Amino acid sequence: MRFRFFDWGEIEYRAALLKQKEVFEQVRSGLLDAGLVFCRHLPVITLGRSAKPGNILVPESRLKEEGVSVCPSERGGDVTYHGPGQLTAYPIFRLDCFKKDLHLFLRRLEETVILAVSALGVKAQRRSGLTGVWIGEKKLSSIGISVRDWVSFHGLSLNVRRDDLQNFGLIRPCGMDIQVTALDAELPGIDFPAVSRSLKDSFHQVFLLQRG
Q1: For residue 140, which of 75, 99, 195, 94 has the smallest C-alpha distance?
Q2: Are strands 125-127 and 79-82 parallel, antiparallel or unpaired?
Q3: pLDDT tens, position by position, 120-154
Q4: pLDDT averaged over the chain?
Q5: Is 174 known to be catalytic?
Q6: How many domains is the chain partitioned into structurally?
Q7: How far apart are CA 48 and CA 77, in angstroms?
Q8: CA distance 158 to 142
Q9: In b/e form, how buried is each residue of 175-184, taking b as 16+ CB within 10 angstroms?
Q10: Which one of the listed residues 39, 71, 97, 174 is annotated catalytic?
Q11: For labelling, which of 8, 12, 189, 190 has a CA lying 20 to 30 Å from the CA of 197?
């Protein structure tokens, strides 16, 4: 599958969503075979299609104090947090390449993260019945996608810096009472360029991407 890679750096969630939809329209119309976006978001709580308001644990005034915005999202899942300590990836792919099988696509996204962190020296795994990637009992990566006309958008977030994890305490992540972790808790000093290179290489391996 031929693709174009986009690195948007640090970007506000709503701005990234608008840009993501532009790439989506190019893929859906056939102007682009596939797009892969990497970015880091300013602090934001996003509400997936299954989000329950009670999973935000603090009042709006507290969120304003912490500088965290709230934004509805078309992705699947419940409530999650995005911040500059994460690497977020948006694969905008035609799912007819994956037999129009959403579960297969989700499992391949999990495999992409597992391979990427393994290459960095961290062992992570799936947990039965739960979407995402974990280190032991702690969640390392969340996945939430949306699909329209069998083209995917939204995607995954990978926690890199533990100093950005405190904002998960504002919510029940994914509607569950779980702990989260970050790569630099396992690999002190790991930096974003190394994580980005490894994740991009893993996308190439798992999805057989070729530069367009």
Answers
A1: 195
A2: unpaired
A3: 999 999 999 999 999 999 999 999 999 999 999 99
A4: 93
A5: yes
A6: 1
A7: 5
A8: 7
A9: beebebbbbb
A10: 174
A11: 12
Q: What is the DSSP track for 153-206?
A: EEEEEEE--GGGGGGGGGB-GGGS--EE--HHHHSTT--HHHHHHHHHHHHHHH
Contact 35, 3 (CB under 8 A): yes
Percent helix, strand and coil across the chain, each to the nearest 5: 40, 35, 30
DSSP 42: P
Q: Where residue 81 sits, what CATH number does that domain have? A: 3.30.930.10
Measured between alpha carbons, how far is residue 74 from residues 63, 79, 165, 192, 193 in Å? 22, 12, 23, 27, 29
Grouping H, G, I as helix, E, B as strand and the rest as coil, residue 208 is: coil
* CA distances for 110 relative to 13, 53, 130, 188, angstroms: 22, 27, 11, 23
Residue range of the domain that includes 201: 2-211
Q: Indicate the pTM of the whole model.
A: 0.94
